[in-house]
Amino acid sequence: MNAHPLEIEGVRKVFTRKDRTKRQRPLERRKREVVVALKGIDLTIERGEIFGILGPNGSGKSTLIRLVSTLLLPDSGRIRVFDHDVEHEPFAVKRLINRVSVDAAFFKKFSPIENLLYAARLYGLNAKKAREDMKRIMKRLGLKEETFNQPMEQMSRGMQQKVAVARGLLTSPILLLLDEPTTGLDPHSKRDVQKFVREIREIHDATVLLTTHD
After folding, report:
1. SS in 3 state form for 167-213?
2. What is the pTM for the complete model shown?
């Protein structure tokens, strides 16, 4: 693919929420407050680049990741992933990306292996190979083998986040979206994740867009 992994042009995203700053009379409609999450964002990322977005909570980082991953639509502007428009070609985009989020959802009664096998089936991966890959990835991220079949609800926040990273890497995406990927991890685990992400980039010629507030 010769196209840029990610091109963002003039993207704007606005949300509305109820204004809770003023007292409301009975039967009076509550006014809605307009929140501009993103305004005129332009960004181009080259193949094989690890591009970081630094900003405080509430600055629009996660909104941008959700837009790129087709979970939200921009109000204006354009986003293209390897020349595929996220609004008009979402399925083509989804085949090229994977997303790791700080608010990653799991079946908490299931084990890491069961959750990752479920994800593998959704992506049409070979179950036997996926099982081998997920064990290798989780070990590389510092998870002990005895935790692989432990219910997720019994695992710490940091361990769950490592499983989320493993799930994101399982499909070998060529554009990896990492939204606060090391939140909840101790310094040693953060370094493990960072090192493994660099390895994934080198092995699969992947491009990485990550957000962080520290």
Report:
1. HHHHCCCCEEEEECCCCCCCHHHHHHHHHHHHHHHHHHCCEEEEEEC
2. 0.83
